């Protein structure tokens, strides 16, 4: 029997193929590869760091919670049930079966950033030397499981090993943020884990359960949310609570970025109708757009960075949502328009000194047509790094080419990893650093930039951009 194929991690991976350009890219990359990780937008549960409980098993760490992985396996005929989705911690036998499914379908991931990240995690975090396959699945599982029993692989130890300086989570406005408070008060934990205010469900008046959600918002804030004025006051109260626990940003993700204001008194009327359950779908959309504009006004007042992640049809496959719930791999991107949709917001607040508005997209056609030009004029606007379906090598390169010529490097956000998969954080940041090093190296070899300035820009993208844009 032939030996298993090696898990090859070439030192020049993702760097340009041309020898002269690659040499410059290597030097730029070496200047940034060891810098601390700043993660201003992600979805890691802060409770895993507060409790510091060992990760349970390889499948629960790499597969079941990661919709990047499960969606591709599902597309190749592996049911989400066979991947343990939505079931929490699995018995050892079932966890091993889930892991085998991943390894048996390893070729399905070829050419994807998901496979790139998984290979980085396996090789660099768990010292796996062989390529996943049906024949190597059990031995890899055993090695990863054995490592997970060691103190060096507990969440806090990995946090330190990964070089994470700041990790932002994503949190409901009604969250008491007790995990963040515990971490901040713990003298044995040197990292910084900060919450992010995510109020989407309280703006979507047409969504099931909205009236109950805003009633709960009122209970937590101590403000009557039966009126629109009460909703505003409750939001301001919870934002202050988040800021007191270290939050620097508020994150918003709706199908569009409309910010049209309602006429005086109309917000009160539509809000009252929505609470009573009598508002029309069109009225609910208009109310949400008005509320999003109000969120921008609050960001000007309290300084929370406003990030917009629009343009996703959530839960595209109803039967999957009914069985497994949200965030299980069937959210699909939409076309999005920014220029006119954001004009009401930008005419009011686009030059406000306290507003940082970071615009993300899953529709890369708008990078050069809308986002770059907007960030190239409005002092408040920054273009967010490629996100979700676009956080892939070629898409990242296209992003730099599309945005830089109209907005430059300094009007971009710095990298965001946007992940629930804790162990993928260093792999994702390293990928970004390699790709930006390659882009800058090409500018150097084409005599657009001197190398010393390219080195400064590379450091700026990794360090100063996220600190400045997200007020870290």
Tell me what you see in this structure.
It is a single chain. The longest helix is centred in the middle third of the chain and has 22 residues. The chain has 19 helices and nine strands. The model has no long low-confidence stretch (mean pLDDT 96). Helix 1 packs across helix 18 and helix 16 crosses helix 17. The chain has a four-stranded parallel beta sheet, covered by helices on one side. 48% of the residues lie in helices and 6% in strands. It has two domains: 95 residues, Orthogonal Bundle (uronate isomerase, domain 2, chain A), CATH 1.10.2020; 314 residues, TIM Barrel (Alpha-Beta Barrel). With 472 residues, it is of the alpha/beta class. The protein is globular and about 75 Å long.
List the helices and strands and how they pair.
Blueprint: H1 19-32, E1 37-39, H2 46-51, H3 58-62, H4 67-75, H5 92-104, H6 113-125, H7 137-148, H8 155-161, E2 164-168, H9 178-185, E3 192-194, H10 210-221, H11 228-244, E4 249-252, H12 266-276, H13 281-302, E5 305-308, E6 312-313, H14 318-324, E7 332-333, H15 343-349, E8 357-359, H16 366-375, E9 381-383, H17 393-407, H18 425-445, H19 451-469
Parallel strand pairs: 1-2, 2-3, 4-5, 5-8, 8-9
Antiparallel strand pairs: 6-7
Helix pairs in contact: 1-18, 1-19, 6-18, 10-11, 12-13, 16-17, 17-18, 18-19
* Percent of residues in beta strands: 5-15%
Text of the CATH class of the largest domain: Alpha Beta
Do you know the CATH topology of the largest domain?
Answer: TIM Barrel
Fraction of residues in helix: 40-55%
Total number of strands: 9
Mind telling me the C-alpha Rg? 23 Å
In the CATH hierarchy, the architecture of the largest domain is: Alpha-Beta Barrel
Morphology = globular
Series of secondary-structure elements, N-terminal to C-terminal:
HEHHHHHHHEHEHHEHHEEHEHEHEHHH
Question: Mean pLDDT, nearest integer?
Answer: 96
- Describe the strand arrangement of the main beta sheet, using strand numbers: 4-5-8-9
What is the count of helical runs? 19
First-last Cα distance? 54 Å
- Name of the CATH homologous superfamily of the largest domain: Metal-dependent hydrolases
Briefly note the structural class of the backbone: alpha/beta
How many distinct domains?
2
Unreliable runs, pLDDT <50, ≥5 residues?
Answer: none
* Major β-sheet annotation: 4 strands, parallel
């Amino acid at each position: 029997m032939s030996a298993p194929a090696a898990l090859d991690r070439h030192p020049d991976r993702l760097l340009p193929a041309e020898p002269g350009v690659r040499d410059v890219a290597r030097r730029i990359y070496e200047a940034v590869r060891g810098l601390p990780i700043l993660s201003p937008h992600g979805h890691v549960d802060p409770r895993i760091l507060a409790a510091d409980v060992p990760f349970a098993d390889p499948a629960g760490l790499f597969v079941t919670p990661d919709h990047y992985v499960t969606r591709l396996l599902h597309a190749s005929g592996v049911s989400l049930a066979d991947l343990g989705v939505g079931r929490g911690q699995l018995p050892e036998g079932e966890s091993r079966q889930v892991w085998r499914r991943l390894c048996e379908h390893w070729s399905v991931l070829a050419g994807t950033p998901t496979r790139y990240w998984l290979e980085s995690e396996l090789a660099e975090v768990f010292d796996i030397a062989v390529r996943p396959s049906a024949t190597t699945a059990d031995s890899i599982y055993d090695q990863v499981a054995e490592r997970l029993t060691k103190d060096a692989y507990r969440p806090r130890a990995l946090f330190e090993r990964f070089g994470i300086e700041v990790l932002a989570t994503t949190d409901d406005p009604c969250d008491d943020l007790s995990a963040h408070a515990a971490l901040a008060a713990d003298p044995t934990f040197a990292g910084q884990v900060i919450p992010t205010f995510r109020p989407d469900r309280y703006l979507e008046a047409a969504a099931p359960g909205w009236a109950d959600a805003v009633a709960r918002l009122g209970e937590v804030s101590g403000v009557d949310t039966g009126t629109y004025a009460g909703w505003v006051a409750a939001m301001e109260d919870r934002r202050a609570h988040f800021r007191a626990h270290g939050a620097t940003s508020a994150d918003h993700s709706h199908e569009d970025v409309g910010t049209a204001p309602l006429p005086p008194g109309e917000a009160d009327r539509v809000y009252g109708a929505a609470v009573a359950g009598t508002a029309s779908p069109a009225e609910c959309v208009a109310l949400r757009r008005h509320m999003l504009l109000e969120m921008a006004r609050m960001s000007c007042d309290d300084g929370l960075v406003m990030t917009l992640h629009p343009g996703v049809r959530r839960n595209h496959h109803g039967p999957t949502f009914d069985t497994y719930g949200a965030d299980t791999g069937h959210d699909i991107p939409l076309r999005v328009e920014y220029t006119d949709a954001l004009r009401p917001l930008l005419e009011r607040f686009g030059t406000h000194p306290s507003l940082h508005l970071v615009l993300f997209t899953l529709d890369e056609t708008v990078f050069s047509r809308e986002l770059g030009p907007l960030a190239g004029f409005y002092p408040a606007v920054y273009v967010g790094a490629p996100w979700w379906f676009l956080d892939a090598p070629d898409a990242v390169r296209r992003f730099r080419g599309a945005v830089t010529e109209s907005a430059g490097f300094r009007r971009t956000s710095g990298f965001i990893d946007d992940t629930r998969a804790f162990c993928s954080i260093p792999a994702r940041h390293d990928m970004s650093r390699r790709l930006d090093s390659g882009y800058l190296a090409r500018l150097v070899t084409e005599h657009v930039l001197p190398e010393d300035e390219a080195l400064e820009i590379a450091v700026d993208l990794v360090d100063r951009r996220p600190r400045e844009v997200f007020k870290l």
